[in-house]
Known about the structure:
Elements (H helix, E strand, L loop, with lengths): L1 E2 L2 E2 L18 H15 L7 H9 L4 H25 L1 H6 L3 H32 L5 H6 L22 H28 L2
Antiparallel strand pairs: 1-2
Amino acid sequence: xxxxxxxxxxxxxxxxxxxxxxxxxxxxxxxxxxxxxxxxxxxxxxxxxxxxxxxxxxxxxxxxxxxxxxxxxxxxxxxxxxxxxxxxxxxxxxxxxxxxxxxxxxxxxxxxxxxxxxxxxxxxxxxxxxxxxxxxxxxxxxxxxxxxxxxxxxxxxxxxxxxxxxxxxxxxxxxxxxxxxxxxxxxxxx
Length: 190
C-alpha cells in the first residue's frame, strides 16, 4: 500500500484499509495446494500428477510409470513412422554393410521398446492391484534381464541422422527405465 509517497507493508491478518480480518490460516493454503495446482494444469499435462503427488505426499511411482509409458509409446510410433516412410529411402543411399547395420539397429530398438512396454504394463498392473509383486517378479520382462546393454552398442555414425536420433532416444529411455526398475527393486526390498 502506498501512503505519503512511500510503500508500506500491510501486516498479516489486516486489510489494506487497516481493518482487521480473521487471522490467516496456513493449513487452508496447504489443503488447497493440490486443488490450485489442478486449476493451472490440464489433465493431459505430464507433470500434473508429479506435482500433485509431491504436494499431497502420495507415491509418485505411478506418475513416473505413466511418463515412461507415454515416452515409450511415442518412441515406438516414431520408429514405426520412420520404418514406414523414411527407412527405405535412407537405406538406398547406404552401402550394403551400412544397410545391414540400419536394419539391425531398427530391429533391435523395436524389440527393446516392445520389451520395455511389456515391463511397464506389468508394473502398471501391479500399481492397479491386478497383479501381485510376486506375480510380476515371475515375469521375465525386467529391463535388466534383456540381452546386451542399451540399444545400439555398435557405432551408428554412418547411419542416417533420423536413425541415429531414434537410437539415441532409445538409449536415454533405456537408462530411465533401468533407473525406474532399480527404484522399484529398492522399494520392494529385492
